[in-house]
Amino acid sequence: MPERRKHGRQAIVLRGTVLPRDSLAVIICTIRDLSEGGARLQSAQLKSIPDRFDLLIHFQAGKVERHHCQVVWKDKDQLGLSFQPAGSPWQPARGVN
Fold first, then answer.
1. Domains recognised in the chain with CATH numbers
2. Cα separation of 51 and 59, whole Å?
3. What is the pTM (predicted TM-score) of this model?
4. Contacts of 24 by beta carbon, 8 Å cutoff, 6+ apart
5. Which of 40, 67, 78, 88 is the most exposed place for a label (fewest CB within 10 A)?
């Protein structure tokens, strides 16, 4: 299968916090890889993660980044996402169970 990513990814293990835009509940996840354009997350609560959300990435030394995200694909306990500019139009995710 040809590679469709615009940016190279880096395998990593970081803590993430999913902030659904229509809920006060947060979902803790593990970030398994990261690139300039997106990330791959792993979570036991995958079914609770909406197609669009904000993600806090918790780096070492207390640095936190916030990204607007859109799900690109979902599998059993992982999902791929792309970072979106604020206010970008919604697109349905592919392969969502």
1. 10-84 (2.40.10.220)
2. 24
3. 0.80
4. none
5. 88
- Token pair in block for residue 54: 């904000």
User: Residues 28-41: pLDDT tens digits?
Assistant: 999 999 999 999 99
E strand intervals along the chain: 10-20, 27-34, 38-42, 52-58, 64-74, 78-84
Identify the three-state secondary structure at position 60.
helix
pLDDT tens-digit map of 61-97 = 899 999 999 999 999 899 999 999 876 655 544 544 3
Cα(93)–Cα(41) distance, integer angstroms: 15
Query: 80: closest CA among 17, 28, 31?
Result: 31
CA distances to 51, 69, 78, 85, 92 from 89, rounded to whole Å, are: 12, 11, 23, 9, 10
